[in-house]
Specification:
With 108 residues, the protein is mainly alpha-helical. It has a single domain, classed as Tetratricopeptide repeat domain (Serine Threonine Protein Phosphatase 5, Tetratricopeptide repeat, Alpha Horseshoe). The chain has five helices and two strands, in the order ββααααα. Strands 1-2 form a two-stranded antiparallel sheet. A hairpin with a 2-residue loop joins strand 1 and strand 2. Helix 2 packs antiparallel against helix 3. The longest helix is centred in the last third of the chain and has 20 residues. The N and C termini lie far apart (50 Å).
Length: 108
């Protein structure tokens, strides 16, 4: 049986890798949960994953793609009140942080 392109086994493997700390799997899982791809939509769980990665110190200088995905996910959630209370000022703060991080990296 396939669920939107993933077999139940692939789905199980993704969740297992995410639970073991595989950052790419965590982000794939969060993206899927946020949009409801391959899973039932669970925006609160998606937000928790993005937020946990953010507070564990994801950095643009070490993991550019991961950083963008985390920041974009958090900004989207706060701007739209998805998985968390809507907080446009927090979304703007995160957006500014993202831009500063990229500018700092590019200035080096």
């Amino acid at each position: 049986m396939r669920i939107h392109g993933l077999t139940l086994e692939e789905l199980s493997q993704l969740e297992a890798r995410a639970a073991k700390g595989d950052r790419e799997a965590q982000l794939d899982l969060a993206d899927c949960l946020l949009m409801g791809h391959h899973f039932n939509q669970d925006a609160e769980r998606a937000f928790e994953i993005y937020n946990t990665i953010y507070y564990n110190g994801v950095s643009v200088s070490t993991t550019c793609d991961h950083y963008d995905r985390v920041m974009d996910g958090l900004i989207y959630c706060y701007n739209n009140g998805i998985g968390v209370d809507k907080d446009e000022s927090k979304a703007m703060r995160l957006s500014g942080e993202k831009n500063r991080s990229w500018n700092d990296l590019l200035d080096k």
